[in-house]
Amino acid sequence: MVEKVATVLRVLASSSQSADLKTAEIARRCGIPRATTHRLLTSLEHQGLAERDRRSGCWYLGPDVYLLGRAAAPRYDITSVGREAVHRLALETGESAFLSVRRGDETVCLIREDGSFPLRSFVLYEGARFPLGVVSAGLVTLAMMPDREVLDYLDRVDLASDWGQSHSRPELMARLHETRRKGYAVNPGLVVEGSWGMAAAVFDDNGQPAWALTLTGVATRFQPGRQKELGRLLLDAAHNLTVSLQSSGTTVKGPHL
């Protein structure tokens, strides 16, 4: 039941980046029967964790979610530090820049800032979730995890069934090895054709990949020669952000366990 509640809350969180959500649509996205979804939403509403617009019938996160988020922020929120790194990347490259966080078997986008180049990719947005190994943030996070954790994860998931043959285990393993060799990940339009991404990992004070900095854009902006330049900028920014977090006096153990 807790898993179902968490799923409903995550779907509600996505409504800020998509169409307003009614009960039937929430049920469809959660893969939960409509009657069960309605009971969960009603219970969440009684607890202040969900709120329904009586005129439209659409559901949203409730006010207590905001209070819980504020209480958790001192432990998990690095956006005040990370936003400057994202801003610099967008300014220096002209591409869209992002900061994502690892949440269990997923990465979640926290910050987006668009650069000056007018053609952009919209695969990533604040609140977007992807499995580890999917999009460049998920790829670099998985690549920087210990071998035992990587193999355990790949034994539990079948990314190819949802994301296509390019995410089969052999092809993913090849990209993981290449990511480790370079230090940064490259996603050559594997999620949306023509939309490329690159990412570098940001480490917590246990040396675990807890966050990732990403650049995305159209394929023509990610030719081999420029990839090296963007990779260097990403690695420098990720290193500086890691050092800033670890020297700030703030607890920065990643929220991935």
TrEMBL record:
<dbReference type="InterPro" id="IPR050707">
    <property type="entry name" value="HTH_MetabolicPath_Reg"/>
</dbReference>
<dbReference type="Pfam" id="PF09339">
    <property type="entry name" value="HTH_IclR"/>
</dbReference>
<feature type="domain" description="IclR-ED">
    <location>
        <begin position="64"/>
        <end position="247"/>
    </location>
</feature>
<keyword id="KW-0804">Transcription</keyword>
<dbReference type="GO" id="GO:0003677">
    <property type="term" value="F:DNA binding"/>
</dbReference>
<dbReference type="InterPro" id="IPR036388">
    <property type="entry name" value="WH-like_DNA-bd_sf"/>
</dbReference>
<keyword id="KW-0238">DNA-binding</keyword>
<dbReference type="GO" id="GO:0003700">
    <property type="term" value="F:DNA-binding transcription factor activity"/>
</dbReference>
<feature type="domain" description="HTH iclR-type">
    <location>
        <begin position="1"/>
        <end position="63"/>
    </location>
</feature>
<dbReference type="GO" id="GO:0045892">
    <property type="term" value="P:negative regulation of DNA-templated transcription"/>
</dbReference>
<dbReference type="InterPro" id="IPR029016">
    <property type="entry name" value="GAF-like_dom_sf"/>
</dbReference>
<dbReference type="InterPro" id="IPR014757">
    <property type="entry name" value="Tscrpt_reg_IclR_C"/>
</dbReference>
<dbReference type="InterPro" id="IPR036390">
    <property type="entry name" value="WH_DNA-bd_sf"/>
</dbReference>
<keyword id="KW-0805">Transcription regulation</keyword>
<dbReference type="Pfam" id="PF01614">
    <property type="entry name" value="IclR_C"/>
</dbReference>
<dbReference type="InterPro" id="IPR005471">
    <property type="entry name" value="Tscrpt_reg_IclR_N"/>
</dbReference>
<protein>
    <submittedName>
        <fullName>IclR family transcriptional regulator</fullName>
    </submittedName>
</protein>
